[in-house]
Amino acid sequence: MPIAQIKYKGFDVLVVWKEYGSKFVCIEPWLNLPDTVNNVNDKIEAKFGFIEVRPRKSRKVKQSVKYL
User: Fold this and answer.
1) Residue 68 and residue 57: Cα distance in Å, rounded?
2) Which residues have CB under 8 Å from 4's CB, separation 6+?
3) Residue 36: CA atoms inside 13 Å, Cβ hemisphere, count?
4) DSSP code of residue 15
5) Residues 6+ positions from 56 with CB-CB distance below 8 Å
6) Number of continuous H segments (helices) and E segments (strands) in the chain
7) Per residue in 22-64, pLDDT tens?
8) Are 68 and 2 in contact (CB under 8 A)?
9) Which of 14, 56, 59, 62 yields a CA-CA distance of 20 to 30 A from 29?
10) Phi first, then psi: what are they for 36, rounded to 5°?
11) Contact criterion met (CB below 8 Å) for 49 and 31
């Protein structure tokens, strides 16, 4: 039986990660991914998942966590 229900809308990436030695796993919806050690983009528009929001425009995203 799950202990939490995670819902997300408008995010392009779901990241699941764990810090070395930790008992916990992190589940995070993200809009893009950070650079990796082997792939560093200096130009923000070249980054994976780059999202441009024009002036006077918006983008809505939603996240909820329900603990059971």
Assistant:
1) 36
2) 65, 66, 67, 68
3) 3
4) E
5) none
6) 0, 4
7) 998 888 998 887 777 777 766 777 777 778 889 999 988 999 9
8) yes
9) 56
10) -100, 170
11) yes
